[in-house]
Amino acid sequence: MRAATRITGTALVFVLAALALPVAFGAPTVAAALDLNPPRTDGAAPSPRPVAHVAGRPTAVVVVGDRGAVVSDALAPYEVLAATGAFNVYAVAPSGRPVPLTGGLDLVPDLTFADLDRLLGGAAPDAVIVPALPDHGEPTSKPVTDWLRRQADGGSLLLGVCSGAGVLASAGLLDGRDATSHWLRLGGYEDRYPAVRWARGTRYVDDGDVITTGGILSGVDGTLRVVERLVGRDAAARAADVTGWPHYRPGTPASMPEAGLSPADAVTPVNSAFGWDRDTTGVLLTEGVGEIELASAFDTYGQSLAVRTVAVGGPAVRSRHGLTFVPRADPATAGLDRLVVPGARAADLRAADAYADLTPVYLHERPGFPFDGVLRDLARTTDVATATWTAKVLEYPTGHLDLVGPDWPWAVTLRPFALAALDVLAALGAARLTRSARGRAAPDLPGAVRREPVPA
Fold first, then answer.
1. Is residue 132, in this structure, part of any structural domain at all?
2. Are 53 and 119 in contact (CB under 8 A)?
3. Which of 141, 236, 246, 270 is the most exposed place for a label (fewest CB within 10 A)?
4. Tens-digit pLDDT profile for residues 50-68
5. Quick check: is 449 in a domain?
6. Where is 263: in which H helix or E strand?
7. pTM (2 decimals)?
8. How far is 208 from 152, CA to CA, in rounded Å?
């Protein structure tokens, strides 16, 4: 029995030793991949654009919390609404300080909640778009959920994009309703919010005064539904055309198979846990860049868990429809591995040629929906499996894309095995030294028979 226990204990020691280095290296990488870092702006925050308000137009707002939001959930609906030319569109937040969007992009809200209330004379906006917030369900999100309840009471049409449905559910605004969310979240939401009737395999669910969408880019479909509801199908069709969205289906969500995890999705834990030497990719902010063009860069690389992005550039920039963004670093001094440049306009103007030593990559030189160019670049610079997984998370079909690159991140995949082998070798060496030290330290016992070696 003692021998068996000793063998079991020894085996456990070696298993733990084999896991030590992979976990030590992998855990910080996972934390960094999931973290939504606060803005690193120095000095006074820049002012947002002067707010224009056209009487008679419906007002739509994209709400972001003080802890930020998922970048595509916020920016894609914003551009779809703005592209119609039929809305007053604003980014609003509890306070006016810059807020982080995922991937390292800092947004200066157009208005605070109090500013919006004064602008509308106490009336609720016609539509409120709710992206995924990193702190939903936590006390820090209470200013947003309290405000959402007031807008719902005031008659706003609510749109929960992706895990923005979780924000609405945490506010009690989905109880007794049909709703949907990102396929990765639905199982948890079914347990956490059982009063909601959660639907799968659809891009959006329209439940009257609340619309919810599937994952990330399904938010484009949900926003077009808002346009249909408040302005009309012709305006929605024009917005889909202007933004390059090819999946618009008037009056109904486009078909979407119910997603689930597959063996190929193992690329995700591989990249997140063991891609600790991820390249730092600077995303150059340029004046007049499209909001979806920006989102495509920060969200595609960020969702891949294989690339770290940081917004770089000079002073604050204004996007195509007037949002204010603040770069975090200067491209020349940020220690970048790569520099990418979102925006068809920036590609036409060769806006990054001053940084020729960084060999800038213009992501949107080719026509198409902005995410096309970034997914192609991701496949080429990492691997096709990572790009395919990322598109799946984004809920973006890739049948029309020519994704070319290595098949799989083999070098990253082999790292935990190499680290485990080093751990086991170190453990074996330590065990041998311990036994040797014990042998040297053992005293002669009285009456013990000393066994001399037998000559050959």
1. yes
2. yes
3. 246
4. 888 999 999 999 999 999 9
5. no
6. none
7. 0.87
8. 12
